[in-house]
Amino acid sequence: MTLDLNRFAGQLEQADCVAAAKVGPHPKLDEWDPPLCGDIDIQIDRDGQWHSLGQPIHRERLVRLFASVLRRESDGHYYLVTPVEKWRIQVLDHPFVLTDLVEQDGAWQLTGPLGLTVCLGDEHPWSLQQGLPSIALWHGNAARLGRNLYHRLAPQCEQREDQYGLNLGQRWCPMGEA
Fold first, then answer.
1. If DSSP codes are grouped into helix, strand and coil, which group holds residue 58?
2. Where is the DUF1285 domain (predicted)?
3. Considering only CA atoms, which of 159, 63, 146, 142 is closest in space to residue 112?
4. Closest-CA residue to 152 (of 166, 163, 135)
């Protein structure tokens, strides 16, 4: 079975995902439990670029729409989910990449492509995954620091026991192992 992108987008539109096609938590996504329809040839590369049939997807609106219904399940796989369909995709590293970090009103906010915005905190903790800084997002997803952001923060790191990292507010944010 193959995915008809127009039909899939239509289902998302009916589920009010198009209006909310922002990268972030979609409140209904955790309630949907459709059957697995199969694998689809969509891949997210190590830089967060979406590909279909081996070619980059250049339509940002379509990528935002897909990103708004992406979830990682307990089996470790990533799925695009509608109320009636679920398609498995490939993610080579993390599905999202964070490119900037700013302090705003005492909170640390990370941003990335597609309008991704997340505030570092209990709901979105910073940790090391496979030796790289990672921020937990929603629906089982995570984001990693982009290379430029990593290199911008690295000179500020200090060593604590067996880790290098930095303090952001009251949080220890590991950048790597010592």
1. coil
2. 27-93
3. 146
4. 166
Residue 30 to residue 165: CA distance in whole angstroms? 33
What pLDDT score does 19 carry? 44
* Sign of the dihedral defined by the CA atoms of residues 20, 26, 27, 33, in that order: positive
Kindly report, as residue ranges, where domains of CATH 3.10.540.10 are found in the chain.
Answer: 5-91
Q: In the numeric block, which tokens belong to residue 105?
A: 């009103």
* Res 25: pLDDT: 63
Top CATH class, 5-91: alpha beta
The whole-angstrom distance between residue 24's C-alpha and the CA centroid of its chain comes to 8
CATH C-level class of 96-177: mainly beta
pTM of the model: 0.85
Helices (H) and strands (E) in the chain, counts: 3, 16
81-114: burial string, b at 16+ Cβ within 10 Å, e else:
bbbebbbbbebebbbbbbbebeeeeeebebebbb
Query: Stretch 46-65: mean pLDDT, rounded?
Result: 90
